[in-house]
Amino acid sequence: MSRKRTIDAFFGAASAGAPEPKKPCDIATGSPETHLDGLNTNGNGLKELDAVIAPGTAARKSDDYSTHPAYPFPIPHLPSALAAELPSWPASLGRVINDQPDLDLLYFEPYVVRGGGSARSLFEFLRSELPFYRVEYDINRGGTSTHIRTPRWTTVFGLDDTSRFSSSSSSGGGGGSGGGEDITKILDVKTGRDVSADKFYTRYKPRPIPKCLDDLRLSAQVAAGCEFNFCLVNYYASGADSISFHSDDERFLGPLPAIASFSLGARRDFLLKHKPIPPPPGGEHTEAMRNATSKPLKLPLASGDMVLMRGLTQANWLHSIPKRTGKNATDGGRINITFRRALVKPGTDNYYNYNVGTGPVYKWDAVSREMRPWKKIL
Ligand SMILES: O=C(O)CCC(=O)C(=O)O
C-alpha cells in the first residue's frame, strides 16, 4: 500500500479534487512478469465479427455479441443455458457476518449454482471471452520509485455516475452494451452534453459493461439492494497470483461503498483484518480500543460464492487473496468479479489505469491453456 494512500485511508487526509492515488494493493507482491510490448490495447473496434470467430466455431449471429469501439474484440453474450438459469440466482440465501466491529458482510454460498456445472461454465466462458491485461505502473515512496507488476490478470468495464454512454439509457449506470448500436459518445447524465473529451475519459477510453457481465450486474443489484456501474475482473492463473491487503475505500466510491464480489473456479482463501486503530495523539490505546481489536477472518471462497461487503467494512477492514504455495500453486485458476459504484469521473480514470493500463491486450488460448498476447486478425 502506498504511504500516501495508507495515511489518507486512515486519517481521511486526502484533499478534495486531487487525483486519486495509485491503487496500492500490489506493492508487496509484484511478481517479476516479463513485459510484452507492441500490441495496442485500445483497438478501434471491429467491424467484421468473422475476424475473431475461430474457424470451426459454430457461427454466432452478430447480435449475440456486445460490441464497442473501445473493446479490442466483440464479447459474446452468455451461453443460452447460463442465461436461462441466471434469473434463479442467487442459489442460496445470503448469510450475514457482522459479529465483529465495523464488519458487515452478506455471504452467498453459493450465488451461482455449483451443481450441474454452471459456476464452472461461467468461469470458462469469461476466461475465454474477455480481454485481459497485466498492468504495470510506477509508484513513488519517499522519493524512491518502485516498478509494480500487478500479480494477476485484470480487466474493467463501466463509467462513473456523472456520465452515460450515448445509447445506454436502458441499461443502467455502467451502460451495458447489448447490441450493435452506436455507442461512441459519453454524455453528461444531467445536461446530455458530450463529455467524451473530458480529461478523465481520454487517457483510457471507457467501455460499457458487456451484456454477459451486465446480466450478472443486474442480478447482483437486486441481491445487494443497491446500484453498480463498474465491473472489475481479476483472473488468478495460479497460486502465484494474488492481491495483497488493501481496502476499496477510494473517495470516488463515497463513504459507505457496497461491493459485490463473485468467485469462480479454484477455491482461494479470502482474508480480512481490521485496520490498525491509531492511538489518540500523544496517548496510548485505551482498554476499550484494545477490546475493539478484531480477530482476522478467513473465508475459503469456492466457485459460485458471492460476498457483499457493505456498510463500514471498507472504511475499517482490509482484505486480500494471498499467494498459495506447494501443491496448490497450480490449480486451474480463479476469476473474481466485483461490481462497484464510482460516483465521480476520477474513479473512471483510476479503474482503467490500474486494470487496463497501456500494455498489450491478452486473450485466453485454449490450446496452450494460458493468456496470450492478442492481435487483431485483419
Ligand atoms: O479476488 C478477490 O476475491 C478480491 C479482489 C479484490 O479485493 C479487488 O479486486 O479489490
Automatic annotation (TrEMBL):
Residues 164-183 are annotated as: Disordered. Pfam families: 2OG-FeII_Oxy_2. Residues 227-343 form the Fe2OG dioxygenase domain. InterPro entries: AlkB-like, AlkB-like_sf, ALKBH2, Oxoglu/Fe-dep_dioxygenase_dom. Residues 171-181 have a biased composition (Gly residues). This is Alpha-ketoglutarate-dependent dioxygenase alkB-like protein. It comes from Apiospora aurea.
